[in-house]
TrEMBL record:
It comes from Malurus elegans (Red-winged fairywren). GO terms for cellular component: cytosol; perinuclear endoplasmic reticulum; plasma membrane. InterPro entries: OSBP_sf (IPR037239), Oxysterol-bd (IPR000648). GO terms for molecular function: cholesterol binding. This is OSBP2 protein.
């Protein structure tokens, strides 16, 4: 019903981005630029998107500088490591996979998001 006004998305597709309580602070549904856009505040959403992108660039530059510094000092540098997933090679296909390594549901149950970075 009313699909032509909803970009012909299914009911499921329309609800996938609905906010949910008690999720990690890194959950993409919490993106402030997206929330502004969805409420029709386009100019504010664009300013916020620019702020978030610059924040991401700054983190990338910091990681790159840390990697160079570690290299110059002869130290190992791990760089970014996902919290909830790890990369593994599928033994049968040789394909690189991201496999859940645990921890998210436990953190959610405890509402302990202290391991999450401040990305917004």
């Amino acid at each position: 019903e009313n699909a032509e006004n909803m970009y012909f998305f299914s009911e499921l597709a329309l609800t996938l981005n609905e906010p949910e309580e008690r999720v990690a602070p890194t959950d993409s549904r919490l993106r402030p630029d997206q929330r502004l856009m969805e409420s029709g505040r386009w100019d504010e959403a664009n300013v916020e998107k620019q702020r978030l992108e610059e924040k991401q660039r700054a983190v990338r530059r910091r990681r790159e500088a840390e990697a160079v510094e570690a290299l110059e000092e002869g130290k190992d540098y791990e760089g970014y490591s996902p919290l909830w997933f790890e990369r593994k090679v599928d033994a049968f296909t040789g394909e690189l996979l991201c496999v859940y390594k645990g921890g998210y549901w436990e953190a959610k149950d405890k509402q302990d998001w202290s391991a999450c970075p401040d990305i917004f």
